[in-house]
Design goal:
With about 220 residues, the protein is α/β, with parallel strands linked by helices. It has helices spanning about 5-20, 25-35, 40-50, 50-65, 85-100, 100-110, 125-135, 145-150, 190-195, 210-215, and strands spanning about 40, 70-75, 75-80, 120, 135-140, 155-160, 175-180, 205. The chain has two domains: about 5-85, Winged helix-like DNA-binding domain superfamily/Winged helix DNA-binding domain (Arc Repressor Mutant, subunit A, Orthogonal Bundle), CATH 1.10.10.10; about 110-215, Rhodanese-like domain (Oxidized Rhodanese, domain 1), CATH 3.40.250.10. Helix 9 (about 190-195) links the parallel strand 7 (about 175-180) and strand 8.
């Protein structure tokens, strides 16, 4: 029979598989994307600007650690998070890093440089939805269309960041715009604010992503714009 020490080492070895899977910045990005909605390898490749082969390799590591699952749809392999606990773990890790690593704060400061006055902390999300419903403000979802279709804030309109410059005339210039993306560590909304402010729009960023919106007890909807 194995000794207690051998059992402990075997057990910690299995726990370490999760740590290894989370040790790559690219794999963390893939998990963030899959928390929005399930995606094919090709879509994930496009979202991350990695090659399909490299994307597939990272996904295999995540799958080997039990963090993602896959299914086939014709010739495509579609991935999804294995469980909501995966996102809870990643979110907890990010919050811990922000509280313990000064460099995280510096990176976030660089990301938000010049935008501090345009950050919206939502104390009353129901009021925000009311203003969006009545057309007093525009809630703008700048994530890719598949993520919007999977779940979005009620009354939000979809213009992905990649299309924003060519579709900017679709936005009214006489109303406040509230842009949001995947949450507090997502860069898409910050980039959207810079683009829109550069052409004279009154725009702020919403700190919430869909996960934070749900966690606050607010409804989300799905479907096309």
């Amino acid at each position: 029979m194995a000794s207690a020490r051998e059992f402990k080492e075997r057990l910690n070895g299995q726990f370490a598989r999760i740590g290894h899977a989370l040790s790559s910045p690219k794999r963390l990005e893939l998990l963030e994307l899959l928390h929005q909605c399930e995606k094919s390898v090709e879509t994930l490749s496009a979202n991350t600007t990695m090659s399909v082969a490299n994307t597939s390799s990272h996904l295999q590591v995540l799958r080997g650690a039990g963090l993602v699952e896959a299914r086939r749809e014709g010739t495509y392999v579609i991935y999804r998070l294995a469980d909501e606990q995966v996102n809870a773990l990643v979110s907890s890790m990010k919050r811990l890093a922000e509280s313990r690593l000064a460099e995280v704060e510096r990176v976030l400061a660089d990301l938000n440089d010049g935008l501090d006055d345009d950050y919206l902390e939502v104390a009353d999300r129901a009021k925000l939805m009311k203003l969006a419903r009545t057309g007093e403000i525009i809630v703008l979802d700048v994530r890719p269309e598949d993520e919007y279709e999977a779940a979005h804030i009620p009354h939000a309109i979809s213009i992905p960041l990649a299309s924003l410059k060519t579709r900017i005339d679709e936005l009214p210039r006489d109303q406040q715009i509230v842009a949001y993306c995947r949450g507090p560590y997502c860069v898409l909304a910050s980039e959207a604010v810079r683009v829109l402010r550069g052409t004279g729009f009154h725009v702020v960023r919403l700190g919430d992503g869909i996960a934070e919106w749900r966690a606050a007890g607010q409804p989300v909807v799905s479907g096309q714009a």
